[in-house]
C-alpha cells in the first residue's frame, strides 16, 4: 500500500440542503390509531412499537425502523417478507418512500400469488403487471411517499378501489422493532432521511421472453379469476381476506398462505376482528362508503390447510435479485435528475382506470426508457443470485488475430524453391547441360554424372518440400493454440476487471455510508489515480475516524459512569456501557437527587458537629421559608462558606480567569 495521501476535511452539508427534511413534522398519532394497532396485534409484545415524543424528525434507536400507521394496517410487519426486501433493493428505495396504496398493492399481490395462484410471489409476474413512478405535485417532488407503484396501462388487473387520498398519513409515523438475524444486510435498511430518490432502469423493467413464457399460465389464471361469471375475484375480496385471517402478507412468515391452518396458525398476528371492526378497517383503506357491502368471503375458495394445492403443479420461485459482491445492472440510475412526469397519490388511485390514466402522461417517457432497458434477469430457484459481474462477462478487449489463408502466403513462399536455393549452388537447366556435355570430348560419362547430381538434388528438394509442409501444419497448430491462449487471456482479463469493479463498488458504498453516519467527508489531496487504492485509502481514513470517535466516547462514558451509577459495576463492552446512558428515566435527575441527598446529610452532620441543638421533628415539618429569611441566612453564612464547604468535602480547584472546575 503506498503512503497515505494528505487530506482536506470539510463538513458535509447533505442533510441541511435536502428538501425532504422539511417534509417531516412531529408525529400526531391519536388514541384511535393506538387502539386500532392494539386490536391488530402490534402491542402484544412490549416495545414492539415506540411512539415518538416531541421530536419533529425521526431518530430511531438501534434495532428500530421508521414506519407509518397506514403501512402497518395494510399488511406490513417486521421482519419483512423477502419479496418486499428485494423490491426495495432493486428499486433503490426505503420504506418511507412508498405510499400507503403502494404498500397495499404489494400485500394484495403476495396474497393473490400464495392463496389463489398457489405459488410464491413471482418477480417475472410482478414485472408483467406493475411499474414504478415518481409521486409529485406541480411544484414539489416528495421524498416521504415519493414513489407510487402503478398497474401497467396495457394490463387487465383487479379493481382495487383505492381511496383518492390518504389524508395525513405522513404525520402518523412511529418506530417498529426489527429482530436481528444472519441476513440483516438484506433486511430493512437503516433509516436515512437524506437519501434521495433516483429513477432507475428497474422502474420500467419488463419481463423477459423467458419470464413471459414461464408466467403465461399464471397470467391466464388471473384473467380467469377476473372474468369467470359468478366467481369473479376482486381486489376488495383479496384485501378483506388477508385482514380477516389476521396474517400480515408483508411479514417474513414460517409458512406460505396456502398452508394457513385457521385460528391456531403460527403466523396469525392477532385474534379475529369483529365484523364491525373488519368492515370499518376495509373502508378505511379503500374507497368504499358505508353504503357499499363488504364481502364476507371470496367467491373463489383460497388455497389453505383445508383446501390443499393440486398435487400436480409447478411452483415458480422467482424473487427480485439481491446483490452478491456488487450491485445488479437493473439498479443503475437513469439520470441524476428525478425524471418522469408524475402525479400526486391523490390522482393515482390504483384501479385499472386510474392507473391507466396516470400512465398516459408518462407514456412517451416510458417508451423511451424501455427501449434502452437492459434485459431482465432470468428467474432462478435460488435466493442468492450469481454475480452479475461474472455471469455477464463477455470477451471484452479481445483482439482476434486474422488467420491468413495458405494461398495468400504461398505467393512468396514455395518450399521446393526454398530447398533449391538453400543448397548453395546456382540452378541450371539439365537439358542444356546434357547437350553441352555430349558435344565435348568427355562424352557421355560426364553427362551421366551430371544427371546423377541433378537426381540427388531433386530427391533433396522433395524431402525439403515435405518437411516444409509438416512445418506449415505445425505453424497452423501453433497459431490455433495462440488464438486459444489469447481468448483465455481476454476472458481472464475481463473477469479480473469485473472483480475489481465489484470491489471498488463495495468500497465506494462503504465510503458513502461512513460519510452519512459521521457527517463529514474527506478528499485525497494527492490521489494515486488508482480507483481501487484511492477508495481503500478513504475507507481506512473513515475507519480511523470511527475508531477514534468510539475511543473518545468510551473515555467519556468511563469517567461519567461512577457519578451516575455509583453502585453498579462498569460493563467491559462498549455497547453495554453506552446502553447504560440511554435508559427511559432521566439520569440527570437521579444524579441531582443523589447530590441533594448528600448535601442534606452533610448539613445535618455540620449542625451536629457545631453542637447546635435542633429539634429535627420540627425541622422535618417546617413549611417553605420566605425569600427574605432565606437570603438573610445565606448572607450570614457566606463569610464561613469556605469552612463549611471544606467540612462537606468539597475542595474546589484553583480556577483560571476563564476556566471552570473540571469533573474528574
TrEMBL record:
Segments for region (Disordered): 311-449
Compositionally skewed regions (Polar residues) per UniProt: 370-380, 436-445
Domain of life: Eukaryota
InterPro entries hit by this protein: Transposase_28
Domain Transposase (putative) gypsy type: 66-133
Protein name: Transposase (putative) gypsy type domain-containing protein
Upper lineage: Eukaryota, Viridiplantae, Streptophyta, Embryophyta, Tracheophyta
